[in-house]
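Lecture notes, continued. The same structure-token format from the folding unit now serves as the input rather than the output. Read the line below as a description of shape only.
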């Protein structure tokens, strides 16, 4: 279905907030709610003008339906008619780097700022202290308490750690979006047809997985008479725990996750990449590489290359989010007979673990002196409605007719030429994804078991493949095993000065071990150097932040 690709391109749209490439999750991005008092006396006349900045690619702009523009489209018209809010695009930029540069120049030159800005979770930490010190942005704590609806307050109460992403000097310098595990938590995808052809069972332990990797590498699983397959698609160019083609299942099987700050048994934060469990996992990964289970050039492969290796039939297993069942896998011929989502396997001591999605992929910051926070929270609440399946939502069928849905002979349809969810990027503010803990049984779980009663259930049922639903559900089964990065604040002086060199040290040390250029016990020297070259100071700095934000 065309919507499978749309769902996952939506997922990748929000991930661009994360990796500067795609911005994920417009699948769930917005809708209005009941409980708003916007109708009391009608919307303000004339409409309240709220200025903003947008990051829009050429693709986003090209998908506008004539005569719509970024200044006049179904979302802006809804906003004016429903809420009396007229969004005005003060800045329109091509990417997040351009937005960061524009903002820094504006602060340096005392240039006028938009009323509201969305800063992603890469830009915001770098700029948080600067924004707070500039005197040009607002502490939104009082406004949240005064204007947020009860159901918005409930969402943040259930996910209080998101406030850590915007807190500095005891104040809240932004309104964070809330993420859930569907955004990036990985599962394993496996070639079901290869398992069947070789008479293998789905692996449930690391030892069983190793046996499957060997068979997928050496027993001609595709039946073409050639030794041209690999067991595992791994992307090592950016890290060994990227957003597709990661090894977090292996690290988790030994009890930790690298490239992030993890909560230790004594309550402190420690960097995962220098923990003893990493040596065990890297030792196994090096063995897999030596035995040919990985592509010989995996260290030059990014996430999309790893994805292609699996989708194109060169590799038999990949670790990736559940939404991969929508795209690219549901676009592969005979996909239902080829691919299967499975849970992560347990390690030697029964441990299971995976990297967790970020708790927030971006936050809205507001110009100091902005006088319409009440209007923003009214808008925010209206958009939140569709995320919690509000039957009164103006977006109950979709974001905009002729964009992501159509009416044909009185029926709503979701699969048609030119369908796009990118119109949802025109919202002034949106929560991101359905906050964890708000809905008892997920929409995907209900639809998969055959409940198709509400408009939301009907939309998902009509526009999603069975494989997509299965992937999301398998991901939900292991939410408790996700380990999220515990350090989500602004980097301190030591981290700003020394982190790039430590990251380079880390990347080279890991790849040398996996490639066999250094023995596994060289990890000990790496850990020693990491602490000596600034890691010890940074660890103290991170824990000072942690104690201040508990």
């Amino acid at each position: 279905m065309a919507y499978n690709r749309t769902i996952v391109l939506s997922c990748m749209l929000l991930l661009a907030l994360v990796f500067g490439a795609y911005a994920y999750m417009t699948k769930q991005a917005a809708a209005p709610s009941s409980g708003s008092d916007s109708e009391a006396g009608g919307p303000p006349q004339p409409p309240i003008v709220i200025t903003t900045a947008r990051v829009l690619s050429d693709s986003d702009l090209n998908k506008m339906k004539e005569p719509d523009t970024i200044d006049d489209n179904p979302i802006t018209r809804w906003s004016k008619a429903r809420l009396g809010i007229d969004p005005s695009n003060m800045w329109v930029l091509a990417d997040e780097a351009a937005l960061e540069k524009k903002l820094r120049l504006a602060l340096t030159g005392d240039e006028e700022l938009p009323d509201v800005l969305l800063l992603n979770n890469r830009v915001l930490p770098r700029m948080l202290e600067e924004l707070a010190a500039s005197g040009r942005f607002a502490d939104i704590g009082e406004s949240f308490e005064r204007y947020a609806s009860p159901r918005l307050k409930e969402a943040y109460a259930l996910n209080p750690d998101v406030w850590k992403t915007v807190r500095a000097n005891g104040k809240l310098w932004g309104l964070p979006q809330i993420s859930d595990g569907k955004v990036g938590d990985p599962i394993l995808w496996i070639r079901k047809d290869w398992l069947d052809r070789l008479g293998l069972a789905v692996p449930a332990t690391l030892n069983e997985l190793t046996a499957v990797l060997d068979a997928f590498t050496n027993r001609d699983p595709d039946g073409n008479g050639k030794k041209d397959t690999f067991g595992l698609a791994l992307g090592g160019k950016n890290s060994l725990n990227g957003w597709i083609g990661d090894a977090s299942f292996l690290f988790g099987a030994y009890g930790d996750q690298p490239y992030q700050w993890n909560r230790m048994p004594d309550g402190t934060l420690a960097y995962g990449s220098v923990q003893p469990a990493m040596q065990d996992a890297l030792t196994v990964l090096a063995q897999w590489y030596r035995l040919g289970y990985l592509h010989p050039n995996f260290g030059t492969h990014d996430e999309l290359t790893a994805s292609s290796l699996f989708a194109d039939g060169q590799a038999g297993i990949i670790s990736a989010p559940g939404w991969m069942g929508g795209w690219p896998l549901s676009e592969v011929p005979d996909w239902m007979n080829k691919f299967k989502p499975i849970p992560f396997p347990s390690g030697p001591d029964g441990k299971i673990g995976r990297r967790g999605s970020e708790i927030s992929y971006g936050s809205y910051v507001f110009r100091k002196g902005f006088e319409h926070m009440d209007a923003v929270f009214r808008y925010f609440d209206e958009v939140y409605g569709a995320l919690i399946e509000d039957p009164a939502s103006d977006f109950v069928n979709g974001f905009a007719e002729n964009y992501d849905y159509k009416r044909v002979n009185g029926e709503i349809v979701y699969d048609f030429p030119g369908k796009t969810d990118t119109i949802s990027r025109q919202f002034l503010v949106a929560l991101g994804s359905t906050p964890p803990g708000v809905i008892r049984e997920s929409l995907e779980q209900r639809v998969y078991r055959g409940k198709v009663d509400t408009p939301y259930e009907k939309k998902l049922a009509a526009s999603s493949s069975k494989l997509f639903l299965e992937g999301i559900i398998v991901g939900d089964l292991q939410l408790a095993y996700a380990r999220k990065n515990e350090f989500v604040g602004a980097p301190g002086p030591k981290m700003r000065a020394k982190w790039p060199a430590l990251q380079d040290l880390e990347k080279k040390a890991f790849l040398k071990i996996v490639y066999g250029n250094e023995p596994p016990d060289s990890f000990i020297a790496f850990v020693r150097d990491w602490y000596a070259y600034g890691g010890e100071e940074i660890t103290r700095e991170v824990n000072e932040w942690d104690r201040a934000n508990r």
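Point for the exam: The two ends are 46 Å apart (CA to CA).
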